[in-house]
Write a structure and sequence with these properties.
about 140 residues, 4-stranded mixed β-sheet, Immunoglobulin-like, 1 helix, alpha/beta, 2 domains
C-alpha cells in the first residue's frame, strides 16, 4: 500500500504544477479576434467588389479583402489590438472607421458608402489674335 502512495503523490504534484501551464496554452489558442460586416449604398443596396482594408494601427500591418456578391467581407483570424478599417470603390467616397479597439471577440462593422460627386471646372482662355475679327471673317493673316 505504501508503494502506491509513493507513486501517486509525485504524480499529483506534477499535475498540480503543470495544470496552470496547460490552461495558458488553451487560452492562447482562442486568443484571436475577427471583424466582418456588409457594405451598402445610401439606398441599402449591397455593393460587391468593394476593397476593405484593415490596418493594425500599432504595427502598421494591413490586410485587404473584397466584398462578395452579397456585399459581405470578413477578416476571420487576427490579433487583438487597435485597428482602422476602410471601404473604397471607384464612384463612391471612401469610408473609414478609426481607433477600433478589437479584443478577443467577433466585431461587426457595416459600411454605408455615399456616391462620389464629380466637380469639373473648365476654363477657356483665348488670345486676342485667335478671336474673329469683326471687320472680316478671317482669323489669321495670310503671309506670302
Amino acid at each position: 500500500m505504501k508503494s502506491k502512495f509513493r507513486f501517486f503523490i509525485p504524480l499529483a504534484i506534477l499535475l498540480f504544477i503543470l495544470a496552470p501551464e496547460s490552461e495558458n496554452v488553451a487560452f492562447a489558442q482562442g486568443a484571436s479576434a475577427s471583424i466582418s460586416g456588409i457594405v451598402q449604398d445610401n439606398t441599402k443596396a449591397l455593393i460587391p467588389g468593394v476593397t476593405v482594408t484593415l490596418t493594425n494601427t500599432d504595427t502598421g500591418v494591413s490586410l485587404t479583402a473584397l466584398t462578395n456578391d452579397s456585399g459581405a467581407y470578413g477578416f476571420p483570424s487576427m490579433s487583438p489590438g487597435k485597428y482602422s478599417v476602410s471601404a473604397s470603390l471607384n464612384g463612391f467616397r471612401t469610408a473609414t472607421f478609426k481607433d477600433l479597439d478589437i479584443g478577443r471577440t467577433q466585431v461587426r462593422q457595416d459600411f454605408t458608402l455615399e456616391v462620389a460627386t464629380a466637380t469639373t471646372s473648365l476654363e477657356v482662355t483665348a488670345t486676342a489674335d485667335a478671336v474673329l475679327r469683326e471687320s472680316s471673317a478671317s482669323i489669321g493673316d495670310v503671309r506670302t
